[in-house]
Design a protein that fits this description.
The complex is a heterodimer of chains A (about 300) and B (about 260).
Chain A lengths: L3 E12 L2 E12 L3 E5 L6 H8 L7 E6 L2 E2 L4 H6 L1 E4 L11 H11 L4 H14 L15 H12 L6 E5 L7 H16 L3 E6 L2 H7 L2 E6 L2 E6 L1 H9 L2 E6 L2 H13 L4 E3 L3 E5 L12 E4 L2 H9 L5
Parallel strand pairs in A: 3-8, 3-9, 6-7, 7-8
Antiparallel strand pairs in A: 1-2, 1-4, 4-5, 9-10, 11-13, 11-14, 12-13
Chain B lengths: L10 H40 L6 E2 L2 E2 H32 L2 H7 L4 H19 L1 H9 L11 H22 L6 H14 L12 H8 L2 H14 L3 H30 L2
Antiparallel strand pairs in B: 1-2
Helix pairs in contact in B: 1-2, 1-4, 1-5, 2-4, 2-5, 2-6, 2-9, 4-6, 4-10, 6-9, 6-10, 9-10
The chains are: A alpha/beta (about 300), B mainly alpha (about 260).
Amino acid sequence: MPRLAIRLRSVVKRYGPIAAVDGLDLEVPEGTCVGLLGPNGAGKSTTMRMLTAQAIADAGELEVLGFTLPHESKQARAQCGVVPQLDNLDTTLTVEQNLRVFAHLYRLGRAERRPAVERALEIANLVDRRDSKVDELSGGMRRRLLIARALVHRPRLVLMDEPTVGLDPQVRQELWALIDALRSEGTSILMSTHYIEEAQRLADTVTIMAEGRAVASGRPADLVVQHAGREVLEVYGPPARLAEVEAQAAGGGMRTRRTGTSVALLGIDGRNGRLPEGERRAATLEDVFVLLTGEEVR
Amino acid sequence: MRTGTLGRLEGPAIRGVLVREMINFASFWRSSAFSSTVEPTIYLLAFGFGFGSIVARVNGLDYIDFVGTGIVATAVLFASVFPSMFGTFVKYKFQHTYDAILAAPVDTEELVTAEALWIALRAGVFGCVPLLVAVAFGLDATPGMLLVPFIAFLAGFGWASFGIMIAGLLRTIDNFSYVTSTVITPMFLVAGTFFPLSGLPEWAQVAGNLNPLHHCVELVRHAAFGFEPWADLAHVGALVAFGLVTWRLAIWAMTRKLVD
């Protein structure tokens, strides 16, 4: 049995009558990267906040790095790095000052602080910009700094809430390389995202969340085979035609998903007869995501 | 409130938050020092010379000396309540600074305590400026005045905590003007700074004694012109009580705001 960096059992978090998290089970084995995939409002950010005890669960068990939350949260936080969704850098401070503040907040000793800040500058690839005010940085640089800030104390576990949201594709790929390097060093990572490609590329296992609970969990490739089969038939046409295809497929016991302009028939592996005209393609994690979270379906 | 940590403040957590404030302060200390000291100094000069020309002596003191010592409390109030109200709200709501700090091994209680301590430290320094100005205008320097920074720190801690509490309780920054008009301005005016409370109707004198700023005014004046041990002990007690109550309330209000 691998040791777990994060272990959640039947966690519930309510805001008034709404259960933002509603019986969530989640495991992050040590040294792996787990992608928490879900549409907006699935409870990803609430889950992230619970892991740092910035939200307190109403029910369920939470363990982070062997510490029980919320009582031992501070010990857990000392060994965690957090990359928030909202940029909360000190904008009037320089790059280096931002890192130095966090070296203090994470209680590094006097002798450790300087090398830790230098290391973080290198991770962020901002050695040349150490004296720049955060205000003067590009969006991509700010994100890199935000990630490096979370790594200044060499955390055992890194929590990333939508680490690349709202960034250019080039910048996103740059950050993927950074996250991938972190993973290859053996740091445990929990990363929430609604970018499917991000989860597919970076995560060892993916947990798909919908309406506050985990609806599926496993290696991306396994999830695809299990829920969407190997092959998908994409049928294009006017709305009336698509509705007809959907009805036929439902009659034949096949699962479908609607994209804006087409209907995809899932799990057509081995079926040849009585299929409508369309394009065959390999099933993807996106098919699984849409199928399980109900996003885009009708 | 986060369970299991009540009353457990860790030095490194408080130090971490203080370091953040100090590094930030280095980038804006000029404007902050300016607003916190120039305004009370203007009050001092305006009242000291304006009223001083028609009111020669109050309670046995030259009016400028009376105001010069009293206005220290005003400087403390301005240097603590406004930065804490606005600063806390901005850091919480707009900069999300507190989200970042609470993700580190720092609890709300430690965060609030460190913020209040920092603002109190600043108030302890800024509060002395009007006194120095008054000395420059002829107030006699006395050894007792060396205690003024500590008095200013103590009072500043209470006002800083009060400001953090207000920032935790109110939903928008616009609502701060209600607090300014109904609480801060009356307290600022009826503290014995510009005129002695002894000339007021009895109910106003009683109300004045409930005003923490009044206790700060009295202590500073006694530091400059001679202590009255029992009365001053009561004044210190009042400021300590004010600080303790607002500190706990600030922690309560911010925990409600920061921890879901």
